[in-house]
Structure formats: C-alpha cells, structure tokens
Specification:
Helix content is 35%, strand content 20%. With 285 residues, the chain is α+β, with helices and mostly antiparallel strands. It has a four-stranded antiparallel sheet with strand order 1-2-6-5. A four-stranded antiparallel sheet has the order 4-3-7-12, with no helix packed on it. Strand 3 (154-159) and strand 4 (162-164) form a beta hairpin.
C-alpha cells in the first residue's frame, strides 16, 4: 500500500510557512481606511436603530433620551467586525488578540474623522484634535418634529462648566436625531438656528421683556423693585398692525426710568431684539 506520510509532512510544512506569513501580516499596522471605518463603528455608525432602541416605546414621539456608551460593548462590536476575516482557528485567536489595539487606535481618530469634514471657520481655536484612547462617550437621541423643522439646530454639551466636543451629530430619520459627545456630560443646551434672530415680540400678545440699558448691565432683564418679576410692556400698534414707534419710545423710557432722549436707535434695537430661544437639560432636573 502506498504511504501518504511524505505528503502529510509537506502539507504541514506549507501550513507552518503560511502561518508564519500570517503572523507577520498581523503585526503590520491597520490600513487607515479600516481604522476610519472602525472609528465610525465606535460612534455607532451604521449600527441598526433597532439595536439601539429595541422597543419604540423607549423613544416615544416628542421625547429625548440620554445615554452613556459602554466601551466594553463597542470593543466587542469591533471584535465582531474584525472576526469576519478569520478563516482558521489561528486567525480568530490573532484577531481577538489584536482587536483591542485596533479598537484604541480607532478611538484616537474619532474626532479627526468628524472635524476633517468641517470648514476651518467652524472649528474652535482651542479644540484639541486628539482623543485619548480611554475616553468615554455619551450623548442623547431625540425624536421630535424639531429634527425636521429646525435642521440647523445647535447643540452644546457640558460637564459642569467645561464644554465637551461633539464627535457625531446626525439625523437618522425625519424625526430622529443622534448626538454623541466626547466624555461624560451632565448638561445639554439646544439653540434655535441663528437665522430666527429678528426684531419682534415673544408671542402674539405683543409683550416685550424690558432689558436694562445702563452701563455694565446692558441686555440684562429688568425686574420690578424688590421682586423677581420681569418688567414687561405691550408694544403699541395701530388697527392695521403698524408699530407706533414714538409711543413705544415713551413707554420704554418710563419703564427704564430715563429721559426720552436716552432711548435712541441702539437702545430701541436692544429692547426689540428677539434672540434665538434655548432649552437646557440638566442631569437630575
């Protein structure tokens, strides 16, 4: 009977040589395109929404939900993504061994992947363009008509008084917005788009909150003496809805306790300025 021993030895030597070659390949740095893709995966990019919101009742209409991203969960996500290239048992072992390194290397380019797409005029001068590998991520998911109505909505995140940079802010659907910050946050501020800045009253009732015009306190709310109630006036208009400028000037002068000559164009503009509204969410509030 013919012996197969020689062929088996040759096959084993070939396998050993191939494994040694694979060992060298695993030690090479991950290509930039893969690192960039993993960095987006860490930010839950392309992760199905049903994985993030298992039940629709967890994110009802006109609601906002805050979260912290578990780094162990995202590391397991990266390991699962890298395991697709594992053909042999050794491939799988090497993939798991190197996955943490790829995970942390990808974390270091998370911010660069976002800010690289932004115009230089939109970047803060003090922005730190590197991210520590152990940095945590937190954020919120909002389901509201605001997402489609105010596509230019502005968001800021803070831990105490320290601002934290946004690493991902994306509209997932017509009514769902996801925003992820670098690090843990306890306060989120949302602002109307700046294009809503105009002159006018706060509501249809034509009420205006009087602002102080004295030096050093310009723009601060004017309160009634000894109270926390703001001083308000009703903007006078004609039957056709036209503004009575002279009468408004007299009313503002009386409310501020100044002479009429003090109320000039800059002061009138300050009083009638309707700034973009803001909404503040604070942890525990």
């Amino acid at each position: 009977m013919k012996s197969w021993r020689k062929n088996k030895l040759e096959i084993r030597r070939c396998n050993d040589a191939a494994l040694e070659k694979m060992e060298v390949l695993w030690d090479e740095p991950m290509p930039d395109v893969i690192t960039q893709w993993i960095s987006q995966l860490i930010l839950l990019k392309d992760v199905p929404l049903t994985y993030l919101v298992v039940d629709e009742r967890e994110l009802p209409i006109e609601s906002i939900r805050f979260f912290n991203i578990d780094p162990q969960w995202t590391q397991a996500l990266v390991e699962g993504a890298l395991s697709i290239g594992a053909i042999t048992k050794k491939d799988a072992i090497d993939a798991l061994r190197n996955a943490p390194n790829h995970f942390y290397n990808a974390k270091s380019v998370v911010k660069r992947s976002r800010y690289g797409k932004m115009h230089a005029n939109h970047l803060r001068q003090s922005m730190n363009m590197t991210t520590e590998a152990h940095a945590q991520f937190s954020g919120f998911m909002m389901r509201s008509d605001l997402v489609s109505t105010w596509k230019g909505i502005e968001v800021e995140g803070y831990l105490g008084s320290a601002p934290h940079d946004i690493v991902r802010m994306e509209i997932l659907s017509e009514k769902v917005l996801i925003c992820i910050f670098e690090g843990e946050i306890d306060t989120v501020k949302m602002y109307e788009p700046k294009e809503v800045l105009h002159f006018g009253t706060r509501n249809h009732d034509r009420l205006v909150d009087v602002r102080r015009i004295d030096e050093g306190h310009e723009g601060e709310p004017l309160y009634k003496a000894g109270t926390k109630d703001k001083v308000t006036i009703t903007v006078p208009t004609t039957d056709q809805g036209r503004l009575k400028v002279s009468e408004l000037r007299d009313m503002l002068s009386k409310a501020l306790g100044t002479t009429i000559d003090t109320i000039e164009s800059p002061q009138l503009a300050l009083e009638m300025l309707s700034v973009a509204g803001q909404c503040i969410f604070e942890k525990g509030e």
